[in-house]
Amino acid sequence: MKVAILAGGSGSRLAEETEIKPKPMVEIGGKPILWHIMMIYSYCGFKDFVIALGYKGEKIKEYFLTYCAFSSSLMVNLKNGEVTYLDQEKNCEQMDWRVQLIDTGLSTLTGGRIKRLAPYIGNETFMLTWGDGVADINLHKLLEFHRSHGKLATLTAVRPPARYGHLNIQGDKIEEFTEKPQLGEGWINGAFFVLEPGIFDYIEGDQTQWEKEPLEQLAKDGQLMAYRHTSFWQCMDTLREKYLLENYWRSGNAPWKIWG
């Protein structure tokens, strides 16, 4: 099963990082967040990726083209330019991913990017997510849920932690203080979709935003189902969120690191 990842946005709220790289290439623990997302899928056995490129897409191409070179010790024969990866089995061959890098336009909106991937996905069920969010989601249970209802689209619904501490106040007295309760906010779109190819018919063109007309119409048609994920989920829209994820990683207890 193919995994589509939208990696074409400019990440304007991370301008300090994204002036020179696309948001999916912003690093957490020395690795692009895109790598972390792909590791989540790979651990669950989903290793066939189709990545939609846009803003500074050449940086993502460069990363994968040189992945083995920068992950291995090398021996270079300067006479003929031959390169030998000295520890390829350890650092590269284990990454048995197939990665298609598809240019989907600089200003194409999310729905348009998805539709542009249609020729590379084919007439089969596929997964979709954004290139800026991680979770400890059980992808097999997500897929099982999708297959159980027979609809065109499954969206992973999440309840993110509240940004600020929650106060229960009686008069002037604080009866309860809870720092960032997981259930402090309502359900939102956490991406991690499972989709049928019929969803392409809901996307008009490049200027269609997936989160608007397509999802709204799928919901009206009774074709959009919610898989509730109640454990860890976090997007990286701001520097604050990047630092949050970085701190998780440095602690050695990153919740989304489900791989060994």
Automatic annotation (TrEMBL):
<protein>
    <submittedName>
        <fullName>Glucose-1-phosphate cytidylyltransferase</fullName>
    </submittedName>
</protein>
<feature type="domain" description="Nucleotidyl transferase">
    <location>
        <begin position="4"/>
        <end position="225"/>
    </location>
</feature>
<dbReference type="GO" id="GO:0009243">
    <property type="term" value="P:O antigen biosynthetic process"/>
</dbReference>
<keyword id="KW-0548">Nucleotidyltransferase</keyword>
<dbReference type="GO" id="GO:0047343">
    <property type="term" value="F:glucose-1-phosphate cytidylyltransferase activity"/>
</dbReference>
<dbReference type="InterPro" id="IPR046981">
    <property type="entry name" value="G1P_cyt_trans"/>
</dbReference>
<dbReference type="InterPro" id="IPR013446">
    <property type="entry name" value="G1P_cyt_trans-like"/>
</dbReference>
<dbReference type="Pfam" id="PF00483">
    <property type="entry name" value="NTP_transferase"/>
</dbReference>
<dbReference type="InterPro" id="IPR005835">
    <property type="entry name" value="NTP_transferase_dom"/>
</dbReference>
<keyword id="KW-0808">Transferase</keyword>
<dbReference type="InterPro" id="IPR029044">
    <property type="entry name" value="Nucleotide-diphossugar_trans"/>
</dbReference>
